[in-house]
Amino acid sequence: MKAIFLALVFFMAVQFPASAQDSLLRGAVYDAASRQPVTGATVLISGTNTAVVTDSSGTFRFAQGIRPPFSLTVSSLGYVTLHTRVTDLTFVMLMLESRDELMNEIVVAATRREERLIESPLSIDKMDQRAIKQTASPNFYEGLQNYKGVEMIASGLNLRQINTRGFSSGSNQRFLQLIDGVDNQPPGTNFALGNTFGPSDLDIESVEIIPGSAAALYGPVAFNGVLAMHTKDPFKYPGLSVQLKSGLNHVNDKNTGAQGLYNIALRYAGPIGKRFAFKLNASYFTGQDWFAANYEDVDAATPKDQRGDANPARNALNVYGDEVSKTLAGIGRVSRTGYAEKDLMDYHVYNLRLNGALYYKFNETTHLSYQANVGQATVSQTGSHRSSLNDYLVTQHKIELSSKQYFIRAYGVIEDAGDSYNSRKLGQAINLTWVRDLNGNAVPITQANDMWFNRYDAAYKGNVTGVAANNHSAARSFADQGRYLPGSTAFEQEKQRLSRLDGPEGARIFSESKLYHAEGQYDFSQLFRPVQLIAGGNFRSYHMFTNGSLFDDKDGDIVIREGGAFVQAGKHLFRERLNIVASIRYDKNQNFKGRFTPRVAASYEVAKQHFLRASFQTGFRSPVPAEQFYKSNAGAFTVLGGAPANSKGMNVYENSYTLTSVDSFGVAVNRAIQQGSTTEAAVAANKARLQQANVKYIEPERIRTVEVGYRGQVNDQLFLEASYYHNDYTNFIINSRMVRPDAPVKDATGAINTDAAMNLLTRNYQVFVVFTNGSDKVSSQGASLEARYLLSDKIHLSAHGTWAEFNMRNANPNNIPAFNTPRFRMVVTAGSENIWNNVGFNVAWRWQDGFDWYGSFNDNRPGRIGAYSTMDAQVNYQFPKAMTNIKLGASNLLNYYAYQGYGLPAIGGVYYVTLTFDSFRGLLPKG
């Protein structure tokens, strides 16, 4: 440490020579708690107009001309103003005490220009460094769920999805997530992987959240909002930081005992001479994932009062393989015996994240940087099925030239899906490998399902010696003879083989896809004063290759290109009290028509620190590559992208029944057979229930939003915010289920074809989940109310509530996507950085009411998510001399196991202790 201190003194000596002829006064300004430099602080010689502003390293200097003694006044947003007396010309270290300046943070994401949050004409929120350090959640990303309008669901221990204003899902493609301007969504699988491959707590500087559409500035991907994460500049944040975290989850979990969680993160950054700086980051996390163990019977063809463990056609939600069913004459519908997810998925998850960056400084405002990120992980992901993404690898490279007026950046994202696989498909594939005929001989996988049902039929009807007739349990046991039991050597061998096998027989998810992106922006305000004028544009190219596992691309990459440009003008009027911003953007995807998206917004200061705002904006979203070209056999169904070329020759759109009509038909036929009717008579009596599907190829979806709001700082202690929005949607992208029988759906007379109806009972059909658009107009609306209060100089309180509502109008409920948002939600937080003698704390309580969850995982049928509340809490202690902070905390303190999405795991408590060492803070004197 002595050597490091001497090195710092030498660095200061180089930066600030001792000669009084160079500078009258030299010094630096630092945060008293974090010991980090305060950039942009104003240092004023009291009683004069002479002032300077601190640079990126927190340093300042005055020219010759003033002699001591004199006083300095130091001020900066978010800090208590400091007054100090100077008696000589030694180097001055000045420490500022932090203070919660309500809503005076500077944000950029809303209008892509710096502005005070309180006067922004659009909805935006910000998580700053103090909030990041004080969050009671295990990491900053999970702490985002405490911000108003933010919805977060956990697909797994190390994978959380973030969304705003409805339509949440396990693989959300409507919400743009940026890390230093880089789109964090893998290009081929299009799974939104949250912060799995993002920055660690040690390297994150701030996070900005835009709820609602931001397509007018950010393009089609920002349909539901933007999350912009900013990492630390090595010029501003040099030094070594280490974080060790250990914890427990699965406490009182019926599926397993308590399990350990472990995380280590390191960051090292600093200058190389006066022009260069670098940073290196590494983090590793490992733990036991949550169990998706909801075994509710969701078989749609069985009446609700007949579902359950005794149902011969039982289809348990988190059991895979039991989706395969058949109607047996004289018996009714029977499903195969499936495998529980916990026996198929790899719940031993981990995250490895590596980052390196090199910066070159032309001057204080112009930088050139190169950044490389490498992330590898095993995570549990939820989409139309549950996937185990094993050793999933994402690599990113970015180069950027930026200044206050412009930036130019280019980046590439490369994904390698590793040994990932579809757990539903795996369960079904294993079920094809062990079936025996009535003589005990193995049968080919192409005959396995039919033979299993033949064995069941024979046993139930008393045609097998030693097996009781008319007994479903006995018939199932006979049909299951030879079944690989979970945990057995044979089961594990087949699981290993099939999870790494491509094609229709295997379950592997393969992707070696790439995304190339270039964009730029220029601020013309200096040329067009007093109008604030900026313009920008981007171009991106997707190159998908999944070897046929996700796309029909065995013959080569699928390439999609798109681009867009925008211009935005802003002006302050009426003595700076009115701020008007207007923009328009044009985007074009090679597979769809171009679209304009205009936006206009304004804020007005009705009284000092009290602002009203209003905005009108439009947006659209081009289907992502998966929605256009996905083609994957998930076993019981095939997921099919909606581009016309993707289904050529498959006769899906032309010759299918709606799934709802097939369900109704199946229930009616099954009931008739149980009541003694023959299969032929039951089909003839109920085939009129079948309806031909009328589904269109996919198009971009569109939105129009009107929003009004208020932000006001009542006094130094109280801040209030209220907002209301209304969204109108057209062409919303949805999943539609269709059933294509082998025979034509209609006969020569135009009536329902009896042969096609029989196909549905004999399993001579294929189910398709297709991406298409809802034909009806629907709307949503919502409101939020927030209050922040400084109870004292040290304790801050906040509370907010949100209301959201989806209006179907006269729409067909089968053609509308899942809103998946609680009607009411409330968050209350309290905390302090230093309530007493270096002790800090934070508590966050969250509540949401119950709602019906819809998703492709359960064939777009509703599953109930009950109302629940959770509490996060942490207490920490700072050891200034040891440059260390220790935090003891809990997420979901009361350990209430709650489902956040239907088919997802129940999430319980996480209890942890974190030790953070930051050498840079310890290099500076305390005061």
From TrEMBL:
Location within or outside the cell: Cell outer membrane
Residue ranges of every copy of the TonB-dependent receptor plug domain listed in the record: 118-226
Keyword Membrane: yes
Domain TonB-dependent receptor-like beta-barrel: 422-893
Signal peptide span: 1-20
Family annotation (InterPro entries): Beta-barrel_TonB (IPR000531), Beta-barrel_TonB_sf (IPR036942), CarboxyPept-like_regulatory (IPR008969), Plug_dom (IPR012910), Plug_dom_sf (IPR037066), TonB-dep_rcpt-like (IPR039426)
Top-level division of the source organism's lineage: Bacteria
Pfam short name (any one): Plug
Membrane topology: Multi-pass membrane protein
The keyword Signal is assigned to this record: yes
Keywords: Cell outer membrane, Membrane, Receptor, Signal, TonB box, Transmembrane, Transmembrane beta strand, Transport
Record Gene3D superfamilies: Carboxypeptidase-like, regulatory domain, TonB-dependent receptor, beta-barrel domain, TonB-dependent receptor, plug domain
Assigned protein family: Belongs to the TonB-dependent receptor family.
Annotated protein name in UniProt: TonB-dependent receptor
Species whose genome carries this gene: Chitinophaga horti
